[in-house]
Specification:
Distance between the termini: 43 Å
Structural class: alpha+beta
Number of strands: 6
Largest sheet: 6 strands, antiparallel
Helix content: 40-55%
Radius of gyration: 23 Å
Shape: elongated
Length: 242
């Protein structure tokens, strides 16, 4: 199961010692409420990139992508087409030192993509994206889910932006786990109802009891190498079409 990286508030206690800190706390609370009101994991991701524009200092564009160890990359949510262009340029470059850091650390930053000291990234510089801040949302041995913020100015993301970003992504990770669980439970309920309908149809057609009908479904599913849910849907759809 993917890990969730939770950031302890004590790591950022200095953020809450001033009026600005209290404003940040209120902003994060409002963001958390919006994230938990989303209806699906996909909606959570799209809400997260929109909120990142308001929460993270200096950000001009944001996106969430999945990076796999097999050097595959997929953009899940984005605020501007330039984010998708950046991901397309980085496709196949998941073993670049910048992205490699995210397998072992929760944060990676590019201060200036145009830098000639080996820490830059000319592909991103060519898109006008000079500053990059990437924060892990989820990670396991084979896959990373990453929130990446971009800015056109160099050195746009300082240590404060990084810390705020980690607080924000902790909220996003929790909301994403919650939305995923809700979706799984909803799907499980739908599957149960569907199998129940198919079982009832077979009981009536074959004049058998519930246990025999369910056993028949399972045998057919195994024989045809079809998921039980898909077989049940096929039976229900056929019955409705009669």
């Amino acid at each position: 199961m993917p890990k969730r990286f939770v950031v302890a508030a004590s790591e950022f206690s200095e953020l809450f010692r001033s009026d600005t800190g209290f404003e940040l706390a209120e902003g994060l609370t409002a963001a958390a409420q919006q994230l938990h009101q989303t209806s699906s994991p996909n909606a959570t991701l799209h809400t997260a990139v929109r909120l990142a524009m308001h929460i993270l200092p200096g950000v001009e564009y944001a996106g969430i992508s999945v990076i796999e160890s097999e050097a595959r990359r997929q953009t899940l949510a984005w605020t501007d087409e330039v984010v998708r262009s950046a991901d397309e340029l980085n496709a196949g470059r998941e073993h670049h030192p910048y992205w490699n850091r995210l397998w072992t650390a929760p944060v990676a930053r590019i201060e200036d993509s145009a830098a000639a000291d080996g820490e830059g990234d000319l592909a991103l510089s060519g898109l006008g994206l000079r500053s990059v801040l990437s924060l892990r949302l989820r990670a396991d041995r084979r896959r990373l889910t990453v929130l990446t913020a971009y800015a056109r100015a160099p050195r746009a993301f300082d240590e404060s932006a990084t810390r705020i970003g980690r607080l924000f992504t902790a909220h996003v990770g929790i909301a994403l786990d919650s939305a995923t669980l809700r979706e799984q439970l909803t799907e499980a309920m739908r599957t149960r109802d569907l199998i129940g309908q198919a079982t009832g149809i077979l009981m009536e057609r074959l004049d058998i009891d519930a246990s025999e009908s369910f056993a028949s479904l399972v045998r057919t599913s195994q024989r045809e190498n079809v998921k039980l849910r898909d077989l049940a849907r096929r039976i229900v759809d056929a019955s409705e079409g009669e």
